[in-house]
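REQUEST FORM: STRUCTURE PREDICTION
Request ID: SP-0412
Submitted by: Lab K.M.
Chain count: 1
Length (residues): 204
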Amino acid sequence: MEEARGLLQERQPTSQYGRRGGGVVQVPQECERREPLVLVGDLTLPELAGRRSRFVDLPGHGISDRPSTFGYTLEEYAGAVAAALDESGVRGAELMAHSMGGAVAVVLAHRRPDLASRLVLAEANLDAFPPLTAASSGIAACKEDDFVERQHARVLAAVGPLWAATMRLADPRALHSSAVGLRRGSDPVLRIPLEKLAGERVHL
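STATUS: Completed
RESULT:
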C-alpha cells in the first residue's frame, strides 16, 4: 500500500526485497541467516554488529518516504512496519525500539503477534497526554502551520543537539502529526496491551 513505505536501511552490503507501492527493504548479506532484530526509531548500536538486523526509518522520518496521504498515527506506523516485515519474510523478530518507536512496537506486537517474539523498549510513550515538554507534547500544542512555519526551528533549539540531530531528518509536518497522535495515545492506553502480550517484554 502506497502509504506504508517504511524504508529499512543498513550500511553493509545488502540484499533487497521489493515493497508494495515502492520502497526497499535492505538486509546485510552476511547476517541473513541469524535471528532477526528489528530496530524501530532512532537506534543505532555498534554492539549489535553481526546480528541480522533491520533499522527502520518510519514514514516521514529519516530517509523514508514522506507520503502526503499517510496519517502518521501509531496504528498506521505499525501497519507500515508490518508491511515491510511481511515483504521481507520476517516472523518472530525481536523488536528494539525507543520513544515513539516503542509505542509503535507495542501496537505492532498487539496487532500482529506473529511478527514479534520479544520487545525491548526504551522510554516508550505508553500514556496519553504526558506533561508539556519541548518534545512531542510541546509540538502537539502548536497548530500545524504555525509549527511548520515558525516553531520548528525553536523546538530544534530547545531539545538540544542530540535530539535535534534526529528531528532534523523528519519532515516537519510528519513530526507534528506524529506528535499529535503520540500525545493522544491509543484506546486503551498502551500499558494495557503491553501487559497482555504473551512474549517477553523489557521496558527501560
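NOTES: The CA atoms of residues 145 and 173 lie 8 Å apart.
Reviewed by: T.R.
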